[in-house]
């Protein structure tokens, strides 16, 4: 990590910065490839085979196969590119992002319409540590 990053103390948040972009370059390129219907068909017919065409880590490939979007964020995935994986599965964006929370799609939508998650107690990792 080259710079001081005070935003690393925000709980439950992965900031997509230059370090994350470097870490996830091939993961995000794979996701971008899913913009093509031909590539989506190839991926759906042999997910592992298609993933092996990309210079991604085994952990990134496992995250894709497991559809573990939170893990993929930590491995350099950009949510806007990761959404291409869910879209290839026929999921809406709300379904994709709600899978990353404790809510289902309807609960996530209701929370967001009501103003989102309260920042109280969620501003710093130290606030989470104080709860335990």
- Report the radius of gyration as a whole number of Å: 16 Å
Poorly predicted sequence stretches spanning 5 or more consecutive residues: none
Tally of strands: 0
Secondary structure: helix percent: 55-70%
Structural category is mainly alpha
Detail the topology: elements first, then pairings.
Blueprint: H1 18-23, H2 25-33, H3 37-45, H4 47-51, H5 58-66, H6 69-74, H7 79-88, H8 93-98, H9 105-113, H10 125-131
Task: Write a concise keyword list for the protein shown above.
mainly alpha; 132 residues; single chain; 58% helix
Provide an overview of this structure.
- It is a single chain.
- It is built from ten helices and no strands.
- The chain is globular.
- The two termini are 29 Å apart.
- α2 crosses α7 (79-88).
- With 132 residues, the chain is an all-alpha fold.
Short précis:
The protein is mainly alpha-helical and 132 residues long. The protein is built from ten helices and no strands.
